[in-house]
């Protein structure tokens, strides 16, 4: 595996690869890699000749400074994991490399960044759009792979890709869960033993909510999810919304035609976890 830190070196490397007609798959990450990330690389390896992973803890997408400081950084362990799954190139740029000057761009994603994460983490999706567009401009992959745990991010990246006319296929990949159902996340490693023992309530409640769909209205299901998670003293729901999977507009009745997803954000002490579940359409 080649480790590259400059955009120039990466572009040179990639132009050689493109010259011989090889396809390029890209998995952007912020490191602290877990099996969810590794599954994205496996999808990329299946579809492409070459897989590139980036590790960059992007400062512009953290609306909370402490969250940025606390975010796990374990690049040596990440490198070992990447060698095992066959990653061809790892791109680990510095902040100066990605943001040589202040990037003042603004984006208009309509409703997509106004709700849920967008409403609770002001500026977060602008930061994601800034870095993903910069990475796409540098890597110019054929396909880029993102996990469905960050469901809203995926919707926004699809929109960004079409707005900026990147010729890149965005591949959405299923959530990978721990044995007890907890959605894998780099933030899980920040949980204390006690917190870790309690957080599986989040996914268990979402799975159960899917069954409640048969006997409860949308609004009853929402109330039930929030109440059930909040009954656990370690957990505090920030939001639970059931939305149209494409527009992210709220669903008001199960008979609506749209494909439906329920998205939750939960505070566990100072850690914030998100998860989601598809409802029957
Ligand atoms: O999902 C993430 O890890 C990040 O938001 C991403 C897409 C790598 C951008 O920094």
Number of helices: 11
Order of SSEs:
EHEHEHHEHHHEHEHHHEEE
Low-confidence stretches: none
The biggest sheet amounts to:
6 strands, parallel
Strand content: 15-25%
The CATH top-level class label of the largest domain: Alpha Beta
CATH topology of the largest domain: Rossmann fold
Domain module count: 2
* Bound ligands, named by name, code or SMILES: pantoate
CATH architecture of the largest domain: 3-Layer(aba) Sandwich
Helix content: 25-40%
The N- to C-terminal Cα distance equals 43 Å
Rg from Cα: 19 Å
Mean pLDDT across the residues is 98
Structural class: alpha/beta
For the largest beta sheet, what order do the strands appear in spatially? 1-4-3-2-5-6
Q: Identify the overall geometry.
A: globular
Task: Please give a structural write-up.
- With 281 residues, the protein is of the alpha/beta class.
- It folds into two domains: 2-173, HUPs (Rossmann fold, 3-Layer(aba) Sandwich); 186-276, Pantoate-beta-alanine ligase, C-terminal domain (Pantoate--beta-alanine Ligase, Chain: A,domain 2).
- The chain is 40% helix and 20% strand.
- It has helices at 7-19, 35-47, 65-70, 75-85, 95-98, 117-120, 124-139, 151-163, 193-198, 200-212, 218-230, and strands spanning 2-4, 24-29, 50-55, 89-91, 143-147, 169-173, 235-244, 260-268, 271-278.
- The strands form two sheets. The chain has a six-stranded parallel sheet with strand order 1-4-3-2-5-6, with helices on both faces. Strands 7-8-9 form a three-stranded antiparallel sheet, covered by helices on one side.
- Helix 7 crosses helix 8.
- It is globular.
- The N and C termini lie far apart (43 Å).
């Amino acid at each position: 595996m080649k480790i590259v830190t400059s955009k120039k070196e990466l572009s040179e490397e990639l132009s050689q690869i493109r010259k011989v007609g090889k396809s390029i798959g890209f998995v952007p990450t912020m490191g602290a890699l877990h099996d969810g990330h590794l599954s994205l690389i496996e999808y990329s390896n299946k579809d492409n000749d070459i897989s590139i992973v980036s590790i960059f803890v992007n400062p512009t997408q953290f609306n909370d400074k402490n969250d940025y400081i606390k975010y796990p950084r374990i690049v040596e362990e990440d490198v070992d994991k990447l060698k095992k799954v066959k990653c061809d190139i790892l791109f680990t740029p510095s902040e100066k490399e990605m943001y040589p000057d202040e990037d003042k761009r603004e984006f208009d994603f309509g409703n997509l960044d106004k709700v849920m994460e967008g409403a609770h983490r002001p500026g977060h999706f602008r930061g994601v759009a800034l870095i993903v567009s910069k990475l796409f401009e540098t890597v110019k992959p054929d396909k880029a792979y993102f996990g469905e745990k960050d469901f809203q991010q995926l919707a926004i990246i699809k929109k960004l890709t079409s707005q900026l006319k990147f010729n890149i296929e965005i591949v959405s990949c299923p959530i990978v869960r721990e044995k007890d159902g907890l959605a894998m996340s780099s933030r899980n490693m920040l949980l204390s033993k006690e917190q870790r023992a309690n957080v599986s309530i989040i996914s268990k409640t979402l799975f159960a909510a899917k069954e409640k769909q048969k006997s409860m209205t949308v609004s009853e299901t929402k109330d039930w999810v929030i109440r059930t998670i909040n009954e656990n003293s370690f957990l505090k729901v920030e939001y639970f919304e059931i939305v149209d999977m494409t527009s992210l507009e709220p669903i008001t009745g199960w008979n609506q035609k749209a494909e439906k997803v329920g998205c939750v954000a939960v505070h566990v002490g100072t850690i914030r976890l998100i998860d989601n579940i598809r409802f029957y359409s």
